[in-house]
Amino acid sequence: MPSAARTxxxxxxxxxxxxxxxxLAALLLAPAGPAAAAxxxxxxxxxxxxxxxxxxxxxxxPAAAAxHCVLAAGARQAPRCFATFPAAIAAATGGxxxxxxxxxxxxVGDAAFTAALQEAPSTFxxxxxxxxxxxxxxxxxxxxMTAPGRCDNSMDVDYRFSSLPSGWNDRISSFRxxxxxxxxxxxxxxYSGGALxxxxxxxxxxxxxxxxxxxxxxxx
Length: 220
Known about the structure:
Elements: H1 17-29, H2 55-59, E1 68-72, E2 80-82, H3 85-92, H4 104-108, H5 111-118, E3 127-135, E4 139-147, E5 159-161, E6 174-177, E7 183-186, E8 202-203, E9 216-219
Parallel strand pairs: 1-4
Antiparallel strand pairs: 1-2, 3-4, 3-6, 5-9, 6-8, 7-9
């Protein structure tokens, strides 16, 4: 007598399992994508997001290749900027001073350079009334301020710079005045927000309360 057919006690396998298993295998075998960069390891910000900057980088003049600029009193156009300090001084003096030292910091201590800027013949179309520096001790990038003539001997304001050009707002750390002038830094544009310094001819460091805070300047 034939034996009775044996039945399997195992549960039935759902028909969709082969499809699910194949999808799982494909996922496991797929190449891994690039891992997210850890903070501080050179992560690139998303498109349209501003790159992280230090306080110094944020205030850096816009053209790193032309860090030495010249701005005329009352000028409505952007400042003229140059790759070297001597080129900026030559432009600021209308070509009179072409032998400026290579760096602003050296120029401050150069007696011949100072004497050249202090000259006051009436034939000059403009003179340098002051030079602003991005770093303390007259270092770093420079902004030469020019005006039609020397300052007089009174304490009234002779020249005004109601705002500073792009890259120079909240940037000044030291300054040196020329052409019989002294200067005063103000916190806000149009001399608002209070004076940051006294009226003085030069400061090798404007002080922690005024450092990288100036937005306008007067020359007396």
